[in-house]
Amino acid sequence: MSVIALASDHAGVELKSFLADELKARGFEVLDLGTNGPASVDYPDFGYALAQAVTTGKAEKGIAICGSGIGISIALNRDPLIRAALCHNGLTARLSRQHNDSNVLVLGARMIGLEVARDCLVAFIETPYEGGRHAGRVAKLGCPPSSGGPGAPSC
User: Fold this and answer.
1) Which residue, 30, 106, 110, 113, has fewest beta-carbon neighbours within 10 Å?
2) Residue 150 φ then ψ, to 5°
3) pLDDT digits (tens, 9 = 90+) for 91-130
4) Is 99 known to be catalytic?
C-alpha cells in the first residue's frame, strides 16, 4: 500500500480532509501532517514537514494545501529533492507528473473547488513519469544554478 502524506495550513483543512477520504477510498494509506483546525498557523512549518516525509521515504508522494497554494509550494521547493507543482486542473497535474516527475501536488484551497481538486488528485496519483527527453531537465532541478552554463557538470 502506498503512503501519501498530506499537509495544509488553516485555509486547507477542509480540502485536505476531502482528499484524505478520496485517497483512502482508492486504497492509499494517508499520513496526515496537519493542521487540523481553523486556528491560524504558518504554512512553511507544514510544507517543511511534508518535504521531510517525502524525502525520508515515510511517504511516496505528498499533497500540500494552503489558501492560494503559492506559499506552501515555495516552502516545499526549498528542499532540492522536492518537485512541488502548484496545479489548477487535471491537465496541469498530469503534466507535472509526466514531464516534471513531481512528487508533491500543491493546491490552493481558495482557488479551486472540490471536483477540480479531485481531478488534480486522480491525475497526480495515476500518471507516471515519462522520463526520456524530460530526464535531463528533471535531473537539473535539484542542482543550484551553475556558472558553467549548458553542458556544465551536474551536481
Assistant:
1) 113
2) -55, 140
3) 999 999 999 999 999 999 999 999 999 999 999 999 999 8
4) yes
Catalytic residue among 10, 88, 99, 134: 99
What are 86's strand-pairing partners? 106
Give me the sheet containing 84-86, strands edge to edge: 29-32, 3-8, 61-66, 104-108, 84-86
Give me the amino acid identity at 71.
G
At 16, the amino acid letter reads: K
3-class DSSP assignment, residue 4: strand
> How crowded is residue 90: how many other Cβ atoms within 10 Å of its Cβ?
19
Question: If you write DSSP's letter for every residue of 13-58 in order, what string do you get?
Answer: HHHHHHHHHHHHHTT-EEEE----SSS---HHHHHHHHHHHHHTTS
Task: Kindly report the pTM of this predicted structure.
Answer: 0.91
- DSSP label at residue 155: -
